[in-house]
Amino acid sequence: DVTTSGATVNVVPSDKTVLYYFDKVEKSTYEAYKSDDDFMKKTMTNLREYASSSGGALFSALSVGETDHTFSNELRPDTDYYIFAFAIDSKLNPTSKLSLKEFTTEAVKMSNNTFEVSVNGGVITVTPSNNDTYFWSVEPSDLYEGQSDDYIMNDLISYYDSEGYLDYY
What we know:
The chain is an alpha+beta fold. It is built from 3 helices and 8 strands.
């Protein structure tokens, strides 16, 4: 089940008793590695570093047996990805070949959403015409004076995305 920003996956190892790690990776990122071994080793190094810096329990990222997982709002539209999996030992060393399943997220479709905006004192109300996801912001009018709607939308989206706020909002 693949959408513009997510995917539901089912990972079924051939040996349901073996410890393994799976995740998603952009195809272009994976292809930058020299070999599958390099990719798996770097993935485990990154996982160790993340667990150490975040204080997170490393075991929660590992699996045994069949696993269903949904990557929700973690993927970019119209992008090639791999779901990957490989077996590991208790010291997080890869012990199998890398398994890959390629998929592409859906492209974003233009919405026919329209908006009614009202301002009452300091309260702004935005009422969409449908349930499509949307983004809105309040900016000083002189910041975008004379700019096209496309320019304003792209500038705001780029800014909020680069600051890490777009997914949050």
